[in-house]
Each structure stands twice: as structure tokens, then as C-alpha cells.
Amino acid sequence: MAQGGTRPAPLRRDAQRNRDALIAAALDVFAELGPDAPLDVIARRAGVGNATLYRHFPTRDALIGEVFADAARVVVDAGRDALAVEDAWSAIEGYFTRIFDLVAHNRGINDVVTMAIPSVPALAEMSHRNAETVGELVARAQRQGTMRTDVVAMDLLFLLGPLCRAVPAAHDLRPGLWRRYLALLLDGFRAPAGPPLPEPPVGEERLDELFAGLWEAGEERPGG
Prior knowledge:
It is a single chain. This protein has helices at 13-33, 39-46, 50-56, 60-67, 69-83, 88-103, 107-114, 121-144, 153-173, 178-187, 207-212. By secondary structure, the chain is an all-alpha fold. It folds into two domains: 13-67, Arc Repressor Mutant, subunit A (Orthogonal Bundle); 69-212, Tetracycline Repressor, domain 2. The chain contains eleven helices and no strands. 64% of the residues lie in helices and 0% in strands. The two termini are 25 Å apart.
């Protein structure tokens, strides 16, 4: 909505066509190169100039938010569905299986699922909704006696983030191979617990810092 409650004027047909081409090209390029891909590559693939790209999407974050809005909704929907499952352990397995299956074919979606991007509101909300979902599922599983009681949600997020980053490579080796490693990782959280854990967990307030740390050392995501 524009100021005053009025709807923005609809785009001309050619402008809408350019916008749609940019979104489609960005989805492909981000899938191949990640969300830090050069924007001029996206413009060329869409068959438009850089000026047209920036007219529709003034910043990289604006483009990322539009391109991955559907993926963000899928993650939010997966969390809602998981919370509706009575058996918490089954819900945890189903939730992460659904997310990993989403990212297996798309590096761009993988990046936004495992990164905190505070400047993209929909993706920042997705990240924190994910943490809330995991926190609730962990608490339920512990109450039901199926998860060891000396772990917290951040333990799961800390380990599953890097594994999620490896999903496309595992999928390239063999489709579905990532399911083996997801099952192995989750098995370490099952009750009864093994020996006591040697260190305290990371606090949930460090969530954004954790996901930001999944970028390669020294690499900064361009603000574009």
C-alpha cells in the first residue's frame, strides 16, 4: 500500500515483463552462485540493462527478499505443520527433512535458509521463526522423554546449519545422501543421553552471529 492507504499504480505490461524476467533470472543465478552473485549477471540473463534492474530493485536485499519470499513461506509453513504433530520427535525429523529437501536442489535457497539477513525483513523473520519452532519442538521432545535433557535448541541449530550448507554437495554425490547424515546427527540428541556434555550451550541471543559465521571466513556479502 502507498501512503494514505492507496494501492500503488500497476506496472505497465513491459515493466511487469521485465520485473518477472529479473525475478526468474535471479532465482536461477542465485541457485547457481548464491545470493552474493553479481547483479549484472542477473540483468544480462534477464535481457535487461543494469538500470532496469535497479529501477525495480534498488538494493540487493530488495531483490533477495522478493526472490526468496516463497521459500521463506515454505519454511514458516513447515514449522506450523511440525508444531501440529503430537509426537515431537517425529515432528523434528519431519521438519528438518522438509527444509533439507527444499535446499537440496537450490544453493540460493540454501544460503538464505542458513544465513541471518537482518536487512531483509521476511528472511530475518523466517530465521527467528525457525529458532522458535525448534525451541518448542525440543521442549516438547524433552517433556515426552525422547530427547536428552542436557541440550537446547541452539545445539540443534549450531549443528544443523553447517550440515544444511553441505546438503547440495551431498545431493550431487547421490540424491538423498543427506538423509543419512541428518539421521546420524539427530540420533545424537535422542534419549537416553550419553556422557555429560563438556561445555555449556551458546545462548539464543547469538543466533544471528551463528548464522553469519557460516559464510566463508573473511567473505562479506555485498550490500549491492
